Automatic annotation (TrEMBL):
GO molecular function: oxidoreductase activity
Assigned keywords, A-Z: Oxidoreductase
EC top class, as a word: oxidoreductase
Protein name per its UniProtKB record: Short-chain type dehydrogenase/reductase
Length: 300
């Protein structure tokens, strides 16, 4: 990472903070981006980035603060410009900024939908797009995006978050395909970690309390090594992939591919579909599962 310049959005929370510190320790110059608000958009502490920058510098690292929002085209341009203005280049983007507006789908309002899509999906696109021309010119660069098993698998009360996170996985694949000819890579991490994004999980029953205690064992800083690796030149052959990091465990996620096929030479009618096609494919249907139903083993 020596000599590389990396932007980390949402850098002052648990996962982002761990990544920013680890990048700086590995020798990168880090643009610490955060707007300093709560996950619900309340407050606004512009000093959180300055404090993290001071911590990085005190440890012998190099960093600069930025408080622009990822939710606008201009804000994203300013974030990337901060790297260029201070260090003269940009080598990596870690799209970590996030928020939550959890609500069951049938109760979710427009603000709750747009607020989450704006930060996660629009923010990931805007910041990635702002860096793209510079990556093209230097013929190198790496994107690391945060997805979630809420999107990859499913979860209750997170239609906005799940849609954004699955969209990020598709966006990452498109970036990997479009930017491959410029030696630019794009990968996703689905982090399992106890952070601000998970400490609102209810624990009103013994089962829920046990799950929360298990989550607390998954420390946020353990996501950082994978992020540093994916930004580094050591990962030059890795692109278009989705990884999970779960305490001391690393997962590689599958991506959608056809699993069954049926054919009717005369063409299908609705009745024929009901009679033949669906029964033939039904054994391969996916259950309505949530992330904890699928990734249910002890992470430690």
């Amino acid at each position: 990472m020596e000599g590389k310049v990396v932007v980390v959005t949402g850098a002052c929370g648990g996962i982002g903070r761990g990544i920013a510190l680890a990048l700086a320790k590995a020798g990168a110059s880090v643009v610490v981006n955060d707007v300093g608000v709560s996950l619900t958009g309340q407050g606004g502490d512009g000093t959180v980035t300055d404090r993290l920058v001071e911590e990085i510098r005190a440890a012998g690292g190099t960093a600069v603060a930025n408080t622009d929002s990822v939710t606008t085209w201009q804000g994203a341009a300013n974030i990337v410009a901060s790297a260029l203005d201070h260090y003269g280049r940009i080598d990596g983007i870690v799209n970590n900024a996030g928020n939550l507006r959890d609500r069951f789908f049938h109760n979710m309002n427009e603000e709750e939908w747009r607020a989450v899509i704006d930060v996660h999906l629009h923010g990931t696109f805007f910041v990635s797009r702002a860096a793209a021309p510079h990556f093209k010119v230097q013929n190198s660069g790496s994107y690391v995006h945060m997805t979630s098993t809420s999107g990859l698998i499913g979860n209750f009360g997170q239609a906005n978050y799940s849609a954004a996170k699955l969209g990020i996985a598709a966006l990452s694949k498109s970036i990997a395909l479009d930017m491959q000819k410029f030696n630019v890579r794009s990968n996703c991490i689905a982090p399992f970690a106890w952070s601000r994004m998970t400490d609102s999980i209810p624990a009103t029953t013994p089962e829920e309390a046990a799950r929360v205690e298990k989550l607390k064992k998954m420390e946020a800083h353990k996501i950082a090594p994978m992020a540093v690796y994916l930004v580094s030149d050591a990962a030059s052959a890795v692109t278009g992939q989705i990884f999970g990091v779960r305490a001391n465990e690393i997962l590689l996620f599958s991506q959608p591919r056809p699993v069954r096929s049926v054919h009717c030479s005369e063409g299908w009618t609705p009745e024929r579909i009901a009679e033949v096609a669906i029964p033939a494919m039904q054994t391969s249907f996916h259950e309505l599962e949530r992330s904890p139903d699928v990734v249910c083993w002890d992470p430690i």
